[in-house]
Structures are given as structure tokens and as C-alpha cells.
Amino acid sequence: MQVTASHDDFLRLVNEHSGIVHKVCHIYCSTDEDRKDLFQEIVIQLWKSYPKFRGESRFSTWMYRIALNTAISDFRRQKRNPRVSYPDSAPFEIADQPHDAEKEEKLRMLYKAITKLSEVEKALVMLYLDDRSYDEMEEVLGINQNNLRVKMKRVKDKLRELTKTTVYGT
User: Fold this and answer.
1) Could you tell me which residues come within 8 angstroms of residue 81 by beta carbon, excluding any fewer than 6 positions away?
2) pTM of the entire structure?
3) Which of 34, 63, 112, 136 could form a disulfide bond with 132, CB atoms 3.0-4.6 angstroms apart?
4) How distant is the alpha carbon of residue 21 from its chain centre?
5) Going by C-beta distance under 8 Å and a sequence separation of 6 or more, which residues neighbour residue 50?
């Protein structure tokens, strides 16, 4: 396979922002195997979409949009009928490093609560936890900022209740 500048740029950018893909996989998948499958599917979709990336938004914002859309589509597709498609060529040199076990243990309770949220609520929490601005959230999710702020307040309240229930068993 001939390596081009765009291929190298793609690999650099995706490796630089690979935490985004890991976060999406953790939010939308409950097993390591599912996370690995989703990670691979997201990278494939990023690769297929990369020629269309025009730089009108930050790469990380664009990457979030592709990753979230892929995760949500994959979730819906798995409910109906599992299907996997691979392009003829894709850059599989992207590091798929597991999360730090200690960090995962600290986040386990939060992730458990997040799994009980809707697809949009999960995406909103992930973007919030990644310190994304409401401008970026609006661009990624296509929801105006006033609605995002209301949804975020409701999601925070919901997570407080879910983690309270999980921690105290009430």
C-alpha cells in the first residue's frame, strides 16, 4: 500500500485524539470484545470519511461526530442484525491501547450509571466530561445551546440519583 501525506496526517491525528474513540467505546459498550469491535468500526468510518474532512471544525470535533454516529448506528444495527463491513484498505496501525486499570476502576461506577442513560444523554455526558464547550456540543450533536444546558442539568440530576442508588443500594 502506498503511503500518502493524507494517510500519514490521518494516522497522526487519530493517534493524537485516540482517547475520543476510547471514551465512545467505553460509553457504548460493556465488554472488552465489543469495545474492540466498535473501536475498529469507528476507525474504519473515520478513514472512509477523512477525505471529506474540510477543516471547518476542529479535527477532534469532527472525530467526535463520526465516532458518536458510528456508535449509535452500531448499537441500533446490533439490535436488528449484526453486520460488519471493511474497506479494501484501512490504516490499522492505530494504537488500540487498553485503559489504565486503576483509572477504569475509579470510573466504573460512573460508567455503570451512564449505561442507564439514553443515547443522546450518553453523548452529552461524554462531551461534557471531555470539557467540550457548548458551542462544540451544539456542532457535534446538532442541539441548540439552550436545550443542551437544560438537558445537561437533567442528566446531572439523573446521574446523581443513579450513582446514589448504585452506591447506597437504595
Assistant:
1) none
2) 0.59
3) 136
4) 5
5) 6, 10
- Residue 94 contacts residue 14 (beta carbons within 8 Å): yes
C-alpha distance from residue 17 to each of 11, 74, 80, 169, 170 (Å): 10, 21, 31, 37, 38
Residue carrying the nine cell digits 474497506: 87
CA dist 157 and 28 (Å) reads 20
For the chain of 170 residues, list the mean pLDDT of each consecutive stretch of 10: 65 90 87 90 92 87 91 71 52 59 66 85 88 89 92 92 62
Residue with cell 442507564: 116
Distance CA 161, CA 148 (A): 20
Tens digit of each residue's pLDDT (9 = 90 or more) over 106-147: 567 777 888 888 888 988 988 888 888 999 889 888 899 999
CA gap 24, 104 in Å, rounded:
14
The residue assigned the cell 444495527 is 77
Please report the pLDDT score of residue 130 as a whole number.
85
Distances from the Cα of 34 to the Cαs of 24, 25, 52, 86, in angstroms?
12, 8, 27, 16
Residue whose C-alpha cell reads 483509572 in the numeric block: 103
User: How many other β-carbons are positioned within 10 Å of the β-carbon of residue 17?
Assistant: 17
